[in-house]
Amino acid sequence: MAGVGDQLRKNLYLEQHNPEAAAAAGDSGKNFDDDGRVKRTGTWVTASAHIITAVIGSGVLSLAWAIAQLGWLVGPAVLLAFSFITYFTSTLLADCYRAPDSVTGKRNYTYMDVVKAHLGGRKVKLCGLAQYGNLIGVSIGYTITASISMVAVKRSNCFHKNGHNAECSTSNYPFMILFAGIEVILSQIPNFHKLSWLSIVAAVMSFAYASIGVGLSIARVAGGRHEGTSLTGVRVGVEVSGEEKVFRTFQAIGDIAFAYAYSTVLVEIQDTLRSTPPENKAMKRATFVGISTTSLFYILCGCVGYAAFGNNAPGNFLTGFGFYEPFWLIDFANVCIVVHLVGAYQVFCQPVYGFVEKWCSTKWPESKFITTEHLINLPFHGEYQLSYFRLIWRTAYVIVTAVIAMIFPFFNDFLGLLGAASFWPLTVYFPIEMYIARTKLPRFSFTWTWLKILSWACLVISIIAAAGSIQGLVQSVKTYKPFKNQQ
């Protein structure tokens, strides 16, 4: 058995650090793709699940607030506009996974690899800064958001027992620790290829809590308890001042734009797909299904939620207590949010894990601590390749993100600023620039011109959203009170 384990570790090392040698070794127990790595088995269905898990966050329940700031005319139009922009630029990015040819070219495993293959130079570093900064920020933000939903379950039961005016104050910190403990265990899933089951569960959970939110909103409207709405949203001089209206509009546009952004993990998702049909074709299908599904839920949650709560729509009507009853259904919805965020955390962390582990193995290729895999048998799982380096580094990452979440519980406002900084380069600029470089579009041609206009327009939107996020962050810092619920 020791000989088998040694051979397995050797094959794993070759796959990660010398794919060509792995293919030449001809391990009879495995099949390999054209790059020498273990054959990928993902399909457009599993890719769609990854996309839905990445795109639909608990922020879907805050879209009612966003629509309330924009009104019936602008709100749905902005939702549809960004769904189209995200789908279009994602299809451009899908064609860049292989280079120079989108079907037969060399594979690129990460977003940075794709940018390096098509653009090169300083743009690779810009891409890495935007991508990994955003991914780390999402990890911290999800820790905060999950704890808020956990607290909401406890508060919901307290309100049901003691009345809606009860104090029911609960600290978020124990729940952040609980969430981090779960993520420490799940972070030992080696890579994206082993994550499909978790993404499917998370995608189902996102459908569940979004459907509950829509259903409760419809029930509220049908029961005649809906609030006043307007074509232009919150009214200046009535609900908000002129300055507040401007910044809230900026923030709402930013919230909607960043609600669709999943380009930070698109290439890593595409790298899980099997080679037939061509990866770009399967990814475009998965993108269409994922974006269409999320757009439907976004419009339903945003518009029906706005109809139910009007211009006073809460930031999140499941954790901000837009609803109190039925309390058991609110509890279930918040549990679904937590389960979804458990999976989404892993989807967004895997590129960070992969980047650090690849860099370390390249930097210290002779280190047994970094490169050695230990074969162990786990109950109900079977054989598992344990890496002490992966165990320690990933555990440390989860702990650090949890500690930052505890220190800065208003970090969700800062996350909007991170999103503003990363949305334009990752979702719009790089896909367009790589398409232009790949197809060698003539400067000032019709297609080149309108692509550039689209890119510059989205840059302006990012700047506007950043301004709104900064204003919101300043207000959160001013009103922050330690040891209180950060709803």
Essential attributes:
Amino acid/polyamine transporter I; two-stranded antiparallel ribbon; two-stranded antiparallel sheet; 4 strands; disordered N terminus; auxin signaling pathway; transport
Task: Draw up the topology in text.
Layout: H1 2-17, H2 19-25, H3 44-55, H4 63-94, E1 98-99, E2 106-107, H5 111-118, H6 122-162, H7 173-186, H8 196-222, H9 242-259, H10 263-270, H11 279-309, H12 327-363, H13 368-371, E3 374-378, E4 382-386, H14 388-407, H15 411-439, H16 446-479
Summarize, please:
Residues 40-474 form the Amino acid transporter transmembrane domain. With 487 residues, the chain is mainly alpha-helical.
Structural features, described:
- With 487 residues, the chain is an all-alpha fold.
- The chain has a single domain (47-347, 388-479), classed as Amino acid/polyamine transporter I (Up-down Bundle).
- The chain is 69% helix and 3% strand.
- The strands form two sheets. Strands 1-2 form a two-stranded antiparallel sheet.
- The longest helix is centred in the first third of the chain and has 41 residues, at 122-162.
- InterPro entries: AA_transpt_TM.
- It is a multi-pass membrane protein.
- GO terms for molecular function: symporter activity.
Using only C-alpha atoms, the radius of gyration works out to 23 Å
Mean pLDDT: 84
The CATH homologous superfamily corresponds to: Amino acid/polyamine transporter I
Largest sheet: 2 strands, antiparallel
Q: The CATH topology is what?
A: Amino acid/polyamine transporter I
Main sheet: strand order: 1-2
